[in-house]
Specification:
α13 packs antiparallel against α14. The two termini are 40 Å apart. This protein is α/β, with parallel strands linked by helices and 501 residues long. Strands 1-3-2-4-5 form a five-stranded mixed sheet, sandwiched between helices. It has a four-stranded mixed sheet with strand order 7-6-8-9, sandwiched between helices.
């Protein structure tokens, strides 16, 4: 159930997160990051100046892979897309392919120049280094190749459609192409401003046309949206033009969101409302084999505190990404000691499975088990992290003056795991002893004051999200979700070691 993952609090990309690949500058952060290095078949150049010179010589545009070794989606794309020989041959024929880890000190100027702060991230540049096209986020083949191919024509590229729009072209075809490019570039504000102009030119029967599918997907957010209801009521036309699998994927993702909200704790468990969602999935024609039903069963069992049955249902999941998503999301605060031991054993088995194949997810499962093992030292309320009250710019200035990194606890007032961090992890003496000499720390409500702008800047969509920043404000890493003291310290130490501080 790939589409359900876009609602995961951990922010994983479907099917990409477990796939290893190579980083071109030194060993990978991840245990499995280097294991498939030989499979990557892209013919990259590794110097920006060389890429520009080669683009002028060959009269080809530059495909710029803006890599970040700490970002799993980048590794996932290497393993799933950039190791495909036919695709790589096509890329070599049409582009000068340039690779740089833009989070490395030597390449940060490129990240700043081209406003690259989220990953995976790809640019197409002309021989003068000007942006022709931007793709934020990965996708499997052939979808990713289709997105890159848009850069080869000014009628479909971001720069070309933007120029035509600014000259006054408001034709239906131009608006569709421009909106498609804006969506791929994650220019959401402009997309939202322009999309009504296109909607007004569409007849409902045109929603099911293949060229409008990306637009339709972008504009369906909730199961209560009129457009979503139209899709469900007119499935036959959408199945014929778009394909049943893609339509199932969209319907599954929307109803999956309605189910997943109970797993995150953002909404109190309501068995009747959950049953209504199940009946709606049946009415919408989702096949019984769709993973949304497995998710429904797990959430129902967990909501009824039937934890042993929840573990058994989790073990029946076939989709590994959905499995991991549920494992890191579901919490068991009222588990009995016997149930805690069952969970520890379950996480241990998962850890062994991933350790056997050299996957970095083994560490994630070890942390989940440690969350249950680590006792909370209520007496250690003194001497924890020394949080300071300051503006964002003041934090950066203080960190620069003291030669430290910046740690920001991004929380919201309604977030239960955020409160657990503040109560159980941050006050611990051993946590403060490690953090205070190395970080200037602050707690920021992401829905107030500077929070919304910072959430947008650092692409925060799940809480808690903790940011580790350099004194210049660039991102070192994100830490998402509740962690008990020991797993929290282990994670932060990994981040510090990676940064070389």
């Amino acid at each position: 159930m790939k589409s359900l993952l876009r609602f995961a609090a951990v922010g994983m990309l479907a099917t990409m997160c477990l796939l290893p690949a190579r980083a071109q500058q030194g060993p990978s952060t991840y245990d499995d990051g280097d294991s498939l290095a030989a499979l990557v078949k892209m013919k990259y150049v590794y110097s920006f100046e060389e890429a520009l010179a080669k683009a002028r010589q060959t009269k080809k545009p530059i495909f710029f892979n803006c890599f970040a070794d700490w970002a799993r989606p980048c590794h996932g794309m290497n393993g799933m897309v950039f190791s495909d020989q036919a695709f790589c041959d096509w890329m070599d024929k049409n582009f000068v392919c340039f690779f740089a880890d833009v989070t490395k000190p030597d390449n940060r100027s490129l990240a700043q120049r081209y406003d690259v702060s989220t990953f995976a991230h790809y640019l197409v540049l002309d021989a003068d280094g000007e942006v022709i096209h931007r793709i934020v986020g990965g996708a499997p083949l052939p979808d990713f190749q289709d997105r890159v191919a848009l850069a080869l024509s000014p009628k479909t590229s971001l720069a070309g459609t933007r120029a035509a729009y600014e000259k006054g072209d408001r034709s239906k075809k131009l608006l569709l192409n421009y909106l498609t490019a804006l969506n791929l570039a994650s220019e959401d504000s402009l997309y939202n401003l322009i999309s009504p102009s296109y909607t007004q030119q569409l007849q409902p029967k045109e929603y099911a046309q293949k060229e409008n599918w990306l637009f339709v997907r972008k504009n369906v957010r909730e199961s209560t949206d009129p457009l979503f209801k139209y899709i469900v009521e007119n499935r036959a036309a959408f199945d014929k033009n778009i394909g049943k699998e893609k339509v199932d994927d969209l319907i599954s993702s929307i109803y999956g969101k309605d189910i997943y909200i109970y797993a995150t704790g953002d909404k109190a468990f309501d068995e009747n409302a959950l049953l209504n969602t199940y009946l709606a999935m049946q009415k919408a024609g989702l096949p019984e084999t769709n993973s949304a039903y497995a998710l429904y069963n797990i959430v129902k069992l967990h909501g009824k505190h039937q934890y042993q049955q929840t573990i058994e249902a989790l073990n029946q999941l076939k989709d590994e990404q959905t499995h991991y998503m549920m494992d890191v999301t579901l919490k068991y605060p009222d588990a009995t000691p016997a149930e805690q031991q069952q969970l520890i054993s379950y996480y241990g088995e998962r850890e062994k499975k991933y350790a056997a194949v050299g996957s970095s997810l083994a560490r994630a499962y070890r942390d989940l088990a440690d969350n249950l093992r680590t006792p909370v030292d209520e007496a250690a309320a003194e001497g924890g992290i020394a949080f300071t009250t300051a503006t964002f710019n003041e934090l950066l200035a203080k960190a620069k003056a003291e030669n430290k990194l910046v740690f920001i606890d991004g929380y919201t007032s309604w977030c239960g795991p955020c409160k657990l961090l503040a109560k159980q992890t941050f006050p611990q003496k051993e946590v403060g002893a490690y953090m205070n000499p190395r970080f200037v720390s602050s707690q920021i409500d992401m829905e107030r004051g500077e929070g919304p702008e910072l959430a947008k800047r650092f692409n925060i969509s799940a809480y808690p999200t903790m940011l580790v920043l350099r004194p210049d404000g660039t991102l070192v890493d994100k830490i998402v979700g509740f962690l008990a003291p020991l797993p929290f310290l282990n994670k932060v130490k990994d981040v510090v070691a990676k940064e070389g501080k």
